Amino acid sequence: MDKKPPLSSFCFCTSTRNGSIISGLLAIILSIITIVIIFTTRVAFKTIFLDLDTNIVKIILVINLAMTILISTLMIVGVLKRNHYIMMPWVVMGIMIAIGLLVSVIYTAVVFFIDGYVHSGVLWLVFGLICCVILTYFWCVVYSEFTVLSQENERGRYNKQPYRR
């Protein structure tokens, strides 16, 4: 029996296919913007567990963002070529980033609260959780398209129409 995808459309107005392409393009654009910000601002980046030099943390972030660009490009190619295998790295990476973002938002908000910056902590928590929800929604859109394409590939592309709600 086929598994139903979590979503049948993107923003109630277009297909999960289009939503997946939009998700990939947004990830690429946001990664490029973040790389530019990392190199053009003087922000002291820190890690939660290790005490690393700020420049090393910047290099690690840029490498991660470059990988995001590569994996998002692969996901877009997978959607266009209707190949769920090419989409798989993005599906795995997307949920890992959502969990990492959630942990980072909560940790940073707690640090703000402990240091006495209550307003900053509240703002960080509210906007960070909104970003987590948006990221999780985009992941669900891509996962839905991934599910449709994997079922399509299992039964043969031309045997049946893919499941759509």
General description of the model:
The mean pLDDT is 88. Helix 1 (16-40) runs antiparallel to helix 2 (54-80). This protein has one domain. The protein has helices at residues 16-40, 54-80, 84-114, 118-155. The protein has 165 residues and is an all-alpha fold.
Which stretches are poorly predicted, pLDDT < 50 over at least 5 residues? none
Q: Please describe the biggest sheet, giving its number of strands, its sense, and whether it closes into a barrel.
A: none
Query: Which band does the percent of strand residues land in?
Result: under 5%
Question: Overall 3D geometry?
Answer: globular
Total of domains: 1
Figure out the total of helices: 4
Helix proportion range: over 70%
Radius of gyration over alpha carbons?
Answer: 18 Å
Question: Which structural class fits the helix and strand makeup?
Answer: mainly alpha
Mean pLDDT: 88
Q: Could you give the distance between the termini?
A: 15 Å
Which H/E pattern describes the elements?
HHHH
Q: Tally the beta strands.
A: 0
